What we know:
Elements: H1 18-21, E1 31-33, H2 44-53, E2 57-59, H3 63-70, H4 72-79, E3 86-89, H5 92-101, E4 106-109, E5 124-125, H6 128-138, E6 141-144, E7 164-170, E8 173-179, H7 192-209, E9 213-220, E10 226-233, H8 244-252
Amino acid sequence: MAGHRVYHLPRNFKDATAADVLEYLPEMENGAGVFLGYVSGDSFYETLYEAALTKGVRMINSPEATRRAMEFEQFYPLIHDLTPKSVVVRGIDDVKEVTRSLGYPVFVKGEIKSRKELGWEACVVRDAEALRSRFLGDGKLIAREIAPFRPCPGLRSDFPASREYRCFLIDGKVVGMGFYWPTCDPYGDVTDEERQAIVRLAEEAARRIDCPLMVVDLGQLESGGWVVIETGDLQYSAVTQMSHMGFWGALGER
């Protein structure tokens, strides 16, 4: 693929160890590796990383960098002023903090992902009792302020889609971006001024988080400004409407 060698991996290492899976991988000298796939168990990537090292391949993202980009409790303190205010709910006292500092309704999600695919009502809690019940059922939650995003009516019947873009960054620089939803931006292409604002904000988030391959999702407010919605490891992220060849070409130039 664009000059890169591709090797297929299982979704987990239950039936074979990482060393077994990489047995056919030729030994290299100062090789660089990228994993593309689904978010797996806590130890999957770290196990893959260590096994690849024995073959002379260093994954571009270290396990620590991946956690900084993926785990809310790691990236939020670094970009708290760039993203809607949030509270990590680990106990009843945190429910009181949500009530005090955020108010209701709030958007709730897990450490890495939300229930967005199940619709808006699966993602929103409207009072303290509902948040308490949700916490007791699910364990740790992230409660987020619902920001006044610029709406994109009609994109989804069960979720109030907003104008969002996903930026792809390599070594802190935006190499591509695309409309987040699987359709065209109803407001048309971003203007040069909007593009500059998006790139500036995404690169500032990347600078603080310090993950070589990462994505930054941004949403436009009704006021016209932009905020970070969340960040992630590019290796686990859909490429949305960015050119796949453009991404691989940029990676090859790294």
